[in-house]
Design a protein that fits this description.
It contains 1 helix and 14 strands, in the order αββββββββββββββ. It has 2 domains: about 100 residues, Sandwich (Immunoglobulin-like), CATH 2.60.40; about 110 residues, Immunoglobulins (Immunoglobulin-like), CATH 2.60.40.
């Protein structure tokens, strides 16, 4: 083979390898994505709120919480959105990431929130159906005196349990029982969850009249969640003394949690 022929063959081989590399890059699978729906509603009625403005950010700097300015800020996704007639903003994002919805303007006639940021993780298990995030807000000037106190106790001794996590949901969708996810969910109140204090108490205030559900989300170490973790519906209204409900929830110890696993292997 002459020198010229060898050089020509080498160029052809390099070109072929380059095309193969381009083909591999082009064939690389796109990241798995899923649908994310932000749903903003009236905290008292569950009615959808139109006209609230939000931004979506992706965690990008490895520091806890959302940073929107300065060196190494997190990553803004898109140009933001305004909730539609259903009170929703909808987007599709890659799974395996942490994100933040940040409210930049409230719906007309409604209050902002002390913390406008709603963090969430997208996991592989979310991919088939996506997720819906509820972000309730209260109308300006609305004042409610209703409250629910939950007393968490040991089922056997009656002593108070610290660290039991509860949520309170208002019945707003007209469907029997608690629906705590999806676009037709009932209305969460008081945030994502409140742990009982040293006296075993969790207090949820500023509640309007209506029916409520209590749901137990976590228990102290050494205890187990009950098979039925939802209590309700509970009626709160003018007939409720002082417009205050007090509910006792008892938990059993996890007597079997530390026994050796004797199942066949």
């Amino acid at each position: 083979m002459t020198g010229r022929t060898a050089r020509t063959a080498a160029r052809a081989k390099t070109w072929a390898l380059g095309l193969a590399a381009v083909a591999v890059i082009a064939a690389a699978p796109a990241p798995e994505t899923t649908r994310v729906v932000l749903r903003q509603t009236d905290v008292d009625t569950g009615a959808p709120l139109r006209g609230a403005r939000f931004e979506l950010w992706r965690e990008a700097n490895g520091r806890p919480g959302l940073q929107t300015t300065g060196t190494g800020a997190d990553r803004l996704r898109g140009s933001g959105c305004v909730t539609d007639a259903k009170g929703t903003c909808t987007t599709t994002q890659p799974v395996g990431e942490t994100y933040y919805w940040r409210q930049t303007a409230a719906a007309p006639g409604y209050e902002g929130t002390a913390d406008p940021v709603t963090p969430f993780d997208l996991e592989e298990e979310d991919r088939p159906e996506g997720i819906v995030l509820g972000v309730p807000q209260r109308r300006k000037g609305a004042v409610h005196r209703g409250s629910i106190r939950i007393l968490s106790k040991d089922a056997k001794t009656g002593r108070p349990l610290r660290g039991t996590v509860f949520e309170v949901w208002k019945e707003t969708n007209g469907t029997k029982g608690l629906q705590d996810h999806g676009l037709n969910a009932d209305q969460p109140t008081g945030g994502p969850g409140l742990a009982s204090d040293a006296g075993g108490q969790s207090d949820f205030g500023g509640l309007s009249d209506g029916s409520y559900y209590l749901t137990e989300r976590d228990v102290p170490e050494g205890y187990v969640l009950p098979d039925q973790s939802v209590t309700g519906p509970l009626s709160l209204g003018a007939a409720t003394p002082g417009r205050r409900l007090v509910v006792t929830v008892k938990n059993e110890r996890d007597y079997y949690g530390k026994l050796p696993d004797t199942r066949a292997r």
